[in-house]
Write a structure and sequence with these properties.
The chain is α/β, with parallel strands linked by helices and 342 residues long. The chain has helices at residues 39-46, 49-54, 97-100, 141-157, 174-185, 198-206, 220-227, 243-252, 273-278, 294-304, 323-332, and strands at residues 2-6, 14-17, 27-36, 59-60, 64-72, 84-87, 90-91, 111-112, 124-128, 132-134, 166-170, 190-194, 211-213, 233-238, 253-261, 283-286, 314-319, 337-341. Helix 4 crosses helix 5 and helix 4 (141-157) packs across helix 10.
Length: 342
């Protein structure tokens, strides 16, 4: 089979021929129909300090996937050949204190597809049967592959009660854009979005943002204060990891407000903890992955009810062999979600 791989330490990826994997006793083999690119994949492509310390080549990359089960392990009985599924990329142990107390997304032994074990930018991938999420047969493959990433946005947005609240989303990458749609779907009073990409600010408006601002072109703090009658925002959803966005977002947060953090700064950030968190009485959540499996049921409800439409977010579809072009698009920020079609 063809597979996009990190073959050695250092920047870059390669398309190689690999044997089709065989499922273990509790696993299924999926013929990949679509796989979407995530920010994590860009870290691995660039070989930044996080990737250097976490990823051990050679490994097939990619973790957002849907496809058809074509083989099952000897002990798999709950799901069968021919089922159309998406994959939860976090493979957890089920035995640690986190897993046993309903917090499997924080499992101490988590392995992630395309990071700690072979992933899905390939024609076939194996996953534990429990990680296979059955989809309606007629669900568009681009949307089915996107559900895992959409789950991040749902987890972030639903950490706070957004009903009738003023919400600021800093960073309009794909997860930020999806969080805008979730916030509007659950009844936010207004959603303000910030990014430095005009392309993604246009997408933010398409996904429902009431205002989309470029902090390099105007004073973002003053603009949001004007929009909120000088009150600030009730909830901050921080998706960018940019130090300036963190500081400005917390500055705009009202006393007693709530913050959900998903963006990764990648390095230490100078931050006025006293005035921006403690004296504000702020509630701050760090968000990892998706809650297993509560978030997946929330994803199902939002999509099947029609409350959220992800179709405008999928801007590019490319065959697997054009993976370099696909990654260049993601790096440029002139795209929404880029989907590879093996």
């Amino acid at each position: 089979m063809r597979a996009v791989m990190k073959t050695k330490a250092g920047p870059g990826l390669e398309l190689q021929e690999r044997p089709v994997p065989r499922p273990g006793r509790h696993e299924v083999l999926i013929r990949v129909r679509a796989a979407s690119i995530c920010g994590t994949d860009l870290h691995i492509l660039r070989w930044d300090p996080w990737a250097e310390h976490r990823v051990h080549p050679p490994i097939v990359v990619g973790h957002e996937v849907c496809g058809e089960i074509v083989e099952v392990g000897s002990d798999v009985t709950e799901i069968g050949i021919g089922t159309f599924v998406s994959a939860e990329s976090h493979v957890v142990c089920g035995m640690c204190d986190m897993c046993r107390t309903g917090r499997g997304h924080l499992c101490r032994s988590t392995q992630i597809l395309g990071v700690d074990r072979d992933g899905c930018f390939a024609e076939y991938v194996t996953i534990p049967a429990i990680n296979a999420w059955p989809d309606p047969p007629d669900m568009p493959v681009e949307i089915a592959a996107l559900q895992e990433n959409f789950g991040n946005a749902v987890h972030v947005a639903l950490r706070a009660d957004l009903r009738a609240k003023k919400v600021l989303v800093t960073g309009c990458g794909p997860v930020g854009l999806m969080a805008i749609a979730v916030a509007k779907a659950v009844g936010a009073r207004a959603v303000y979005a910030t990014d430095v990409s005009s392309y993604r600010l246009d997408l933010a408006r398409t996904m429902g943002a009431d205002a989309a601002l470029d902090p390099t072109e105007s004073n973002m703090v003053e603009a949001v204060l004007d929009l909120t009658e000088r009150e600030g925002v009730d909830v901050l959803l921080e998706m960018s990891g940019a130090a300036a966005a963190l500081r400005e977002g917390f500055h705009l947060l009202k006393p007693g407000g709530e913050v959900a953090l998903l963006g990764l700064p990648g390095q230490p950030v100078e931050f006025d903890f006293d005035n921006l968190v403690i004296f504000k009485g702020a509630t701050v959540y760090g968000v990892v992955g998706r809650q297993l499996w509560e978030t997946w049921y929330q994803v199902r409800g939002l999509l099947r009810s029609g409350a959220v439409n992800l179709a405008p977010l999928v801007t590019h579809r490319l065959p697997l062999e054009r993976f370099e072009e696909a990654f260049a698009l993601m790096t440029s920020s002139r795209c929404g979600k880029v989907v590879l079609l093996p």
